[in-house]
Amino acid sequence: MTQNHYTGEVKLVLFDVDGVLTDGGLYLGSEGEMFKKFNVRDGLAVSLLRCHGILCGVLSGKSSSALDYRVQQLRFDVAVTGRLDKREAYCKIKQDLGLSDSQIAFVGDDVVDLPLAGMVGRFFAPSDAHALVLAKADHVTTARGGGGVAREVAEYILIEAGISIEQAYQPLMDGWSELRVVQ
């Protein structure tokens, strides 16, 4: 399998879920939240980051069984859900992994994500994020929430570190089965 040596500063990418990995819509039934619509491009983004040695996680204000299933399916390295106080959860994640703020990127879309904007090394937002979030973002994706935001962020981080788009995907293409890639 081809190995690309990622030498960038980002060692962990944390994603908010609703409005980032999903379009923010809630599918409710009489038993509560029933479904979440995820984008397969974002599933592949997790594998892309991980094959370059970058950890991935979710830090979400909501929790649901659909989210728990997706977290398990994609084998996220970190998963904190049901926490509106993201600052406290972020500090614990950072401490547990022994990382500095500059080594962590966060992707958020709404005002509950704003406390992390001044803490993380890189703060990303989807193009349809709240205006206050867009104003604080280091980078705004062209994708809207649920439309491949994680994929765009993954590619951006790798390209920014000097890895071409072809080099970025080569480990995945060389080792689909060994990497247990999930979309």
Characterization of this structure:
The chain has a single domain (12-177), classed as 3-Layer(aba) Sandwich (Rossmann fold). It has helices spanning 40-51, 65-74, 86-97, 114-117, 131-136, 149-160, 165-174, 176-179, and strands at 12-15, 27-29, 32-35, 55-59, 78-80, 104-107, 122-125, 139-140. It has a six-stranded parallel sheet with strand order 5-4-1-6-7-8, with helices on both faces. Helix 1 packs parallel to helix 6. The chain is α/β, with parallel strands linked by helices and 183 residues long. It has eight helices and eight strands.
Can you give me a brief rundown of this structure?
With 183 residues, the protein is α/β, with parallel strands linked by helices. It has eight helices and eight strands, in the order βββαβαβαβαβαβααα.
Which sequence of SSEs, written as H and E, runs from N to C?
EEEHEHEHEHEHEHHH
What distance lies between the first and last C-alpha atoms, to the nearest angstrom? Answer: 20 Å
Class by SSE composition: alpha/beta
CATH class: Alpha Beta
The whole-angstrom Rg is 15 Å
Number of domains: 1
Question: Low-confidence parts lasting 5 or more residues at pLDDT below 50?
Answer: none
Shape by Cα distribution? globular
Q: What is this structure's SSE topology?
A:
Blueprint (H helix, E strand, L loop, with lengths): L11 E4 L11 E3 L2 E4 L4 H12 L3 E5 L5 H10 L3 E3 L5 H12 L6 E4 L6 H4 L4 E4 L5 H6 L2 E2 L8 H12 L4 H10 L1 H4 L4
Parallel strand pairs: 1-4, 1-6, 4-5, 6-7, 7-8
Antiparallel strand pairs: 2-3
Helix pairs in contact: 1-6
